[in-house]
Specification:
heterotrimer, A: mainly alpha, 5 helices, 0% strand, B: Four Helix Bundle (Hemerythrin (Met), subunit A), extended
Chain lengths: 151, 220, 103
């Protein structure tokens, strides 16, 4: 109960943050000109041509892998935070000998996984540079084909 | 502190407030038509459950709940919604056959009944020794429990983490032909209309079906 | 203090909602959200036991830490499986018409 009372300033701050965002959105909604939207106005813009097909980009699986990486590092951080906020590793506190080895092993295991992912990631999913290279190569091939065929 | 009636009333009011918000948010997270709103409600609910943990005198667990659930799992679900555009179709909510719906409701009612029995009818209060709890706030005892006595579980958690990481990379691997198919999309690299007498559009599109090329030539 | 059974009632309601979300819904993402809600309910029950029983105080809190991290790992893998499902069938629907392969 005491703990909850200690954390009430955090709650007040969170409520203030939400109120701020809502007030900003409401203010912009009030000050906006309200014009009727029809389907031609809200369709996607393609430099004046008719849009063909859905406007979907290629699947960015890279971002997903980075999010999983973030979760792994987050959990590791939570475990190390617990260790750091206690007196177990202080030179004056109770310092059991095998605790340091456990921490080193834990960090090594997680770092090993992250290192493996960093090495294998360029082979597994497409990079931005690679996509651009392939695109340029395909375009050059096609132009060579049309130039050769046009003669 | 425990015998103070004002504090007791205050605590009960807080408990009912937080519990009400959590249950409403959980229901909204499951029932709202749009997936993005549902994922956001889930993230919000995870933060309010952290408030529950604070009421239960567990500050470290509240912090870990916000860091991992709201910051990690909620972001993962929103990324999943981003990468799966078909999930934003709001017509996939109920099974079309009534039998499947009834079976689903029966099974979930069964699970809820078991957990209600465990929660309400099991004599939890009598099987614990005493009701006096110590309000120590330092994390030293918890750190010692986790890292000194049961550190084997911490190493197992590390292995589980890298399993999920390596699994994510290994399962999402695409070979080159499939990658080119995913860049080019359904209509080829450029759905241009000026290249009419092209016998074969791109040299890499060997894995693509002939049907989009027919559509491309039809468009020309 | 708030009696223990109140916390268990909240935990049971969340577990029931999570089970309902996992078994009745058709969209894969909602099933995942239902699983996470169930996990949250279980965590609330565990923390309530940590408070009300001095012998299991540290054990329950340590167990919750382990359970939360395992839940994070398995949510990531569940999403990867959903991405593979989407890549194969191009839908996120559990009730899709099953393509029967001619033997």
């Amino acid at each position: 109960m005491r703990l909850f009372v200690d954390f009430v300033p955090v709650l007040v701050w969170a409520i203030l943050a939400i109120v701020l965002v809502v007030v900003m959105l409401l203010a912009s909604w009030v000050l906006r000109p309200h014009v009727l939207q029809n389907s031609e106005k809200t369709s996607s813009y393609e430099c004046g041509e008719e849009p063909i097909g859905p406007a979907r980009i290629s699947y960015p699986y890279n971002y997903f892998i980075y999010t999983v990486l973030f979760v792994v590092v987050d959990v590791m951080g939570a475990f190390l935070w617990l260790l750091a906020s206690s007196t177990l590793l202080w030179p004056t506190g109770p310092n059991p000998q095998e605790l340091v080895w456990q921490v080193i092993l834990f960090i090594l295991i997680v770092m090993g996984g992250i290192g493996f992912v960093m090495k294998k990631l360029p082979e597994a999913a497409l990079d931005g540079k690679e996509t651009l290279e392939q695109y340029r190569k395909a375009k050059a091939e096609r132009e060579k084909h049309t130039i050769a065929g046009g003669h | 502190m425990q015998a103070d009636p004002v504090f007791q009333l205050f605590e009960q009011v807080e408990f009912i407030l937080i519990a009400g918000i959590v249950i409403v948010l959980a229901y909204l997270a499951l029932e709202h038509k749009e997936i993005v709103y549902a994922a956001f409600f889930f993230g919000f609910m995870a933060s309010i459950v952290a408030g529950f943990f604070l009421l239960l005198e567990a500050p470290f667990i509240a912090g870990m709940q916000i860091a991992v659930y709201t910051g990690g799992i909620s972001a993962l679900i929103i990324f999943g919604v981003l990468l799966l555009p078909r999930a934003q179709d709001s017509s996939l909510e109920t099974f079309p056959s009534g039998r499947k719906r009834k079976i689903g409701l029966l099974l979930s009612g069964f699970v809820a009944a078991i957990s209600a029995t465990l929660a309400l009818l099991f004599p939890w209060a009598e099987s614990f020794d005493e009701i006096v709890v110590d309000m120590s706030q330092d994390l030293g005892a918890l750190a010692e429990w986790l890292w000194v006595e049961n550190s084997i579980y911490v190493q197992m958690i590390a292995i589980i983490m890298i399993t999920s990481l390596i699994g994510a990379v290994a399962l999402l691997k695409m070979d080159k032909a499939e990658q080119m198919g995913s860049i080019q999309g359904e209509f080829g690299i450029e759905a241009e209309v000026e290249i009419e007498d092209e016998p074969e559009p791109e040299p890499e599109s060997v894995d693509e079906e002939p049907e989009p090329e027919a559509t491309e030539e039809e468009d020309a | 203090m708030v009696p223990l059974s109140w916390y268990l009632v909240v935990a049971f309601i969340l577990i029931g909602l999570g089970a309902y979300g996992m078994m009745v819904k058709r969209n894969l993402i909602r099933i995942l959200i239902g699983a996470e809600i169930m996990g949250n309910g279980v965590n609330i029950a565990l923390v309530a036991f940590a408070l009300y029983s001095p012998t299991f105080n540290l054990t329950a809190q340590g167990l919750i830490i382990l359970v939360i991290s395992v839940a994070a790992a398995h949510t990531a893998l569940a999403l990867v499986l959903m991405l593979m499902y989407n890549r194969r069938y191009d839908t996120v629907d559990l009730g899709r018409p099953v393509d029967r392969e001619v033997a």
